[in-house]
Fold:
Amino acid sequence: MSDSASSENPYGTPTTTGPEPIRSFQAQLNTLIRGLLKVPLLSGIVGKRLATLHVVGRKSGAVYDVPVAYTVHGGDLLIGTALRPWVKNLRGGAQVRLSRGRAPETFTATVFTDEQHVLELFAVIARDNKQNAKFNGIGYLPDGEPSKADIYQTWQQGGVVIALTPR
Structure:
């Protein structure tokens, strides 16, 4: 992440103002999504690109169920998000569980915060999932490619990419 959020964007002028702010009703929306992802017939429709990440608190030991959008890339699952408090629990190669409408799977998490990885991997995510890109403040150029200036802005504002590697 950049030391100065106001520094010049080396990729030009962003097409957006950055990631969408957390909505006041996000907790209720997350509860609804988690519920829908548990229903066998609906989970296949709702969960085509959504899953529930089961994150264990590093201090509390409590399990937090976080609905996330994911992209399959290589053998990994990629999650692009802002640096939320729950992300800190994934550092250091943490083992996590992820439910995608069936029994939870175990993964090793790698959190990328550096510019190079975030720009490269968020571009992969944005190509695969336009809704996720919009939520993370990433627009598109006339040729259909994600705006590198927008991805850089997202990184400056705390955007990270989590890679989940199957165990």
In short: The domain at 26-166 is CATH 2.30.110.10 (Pnp Oxidase; Chain A). The beta strands are 50-56, 63-69, 71-73, 76-82, 95-99, 105-112, 159-166.
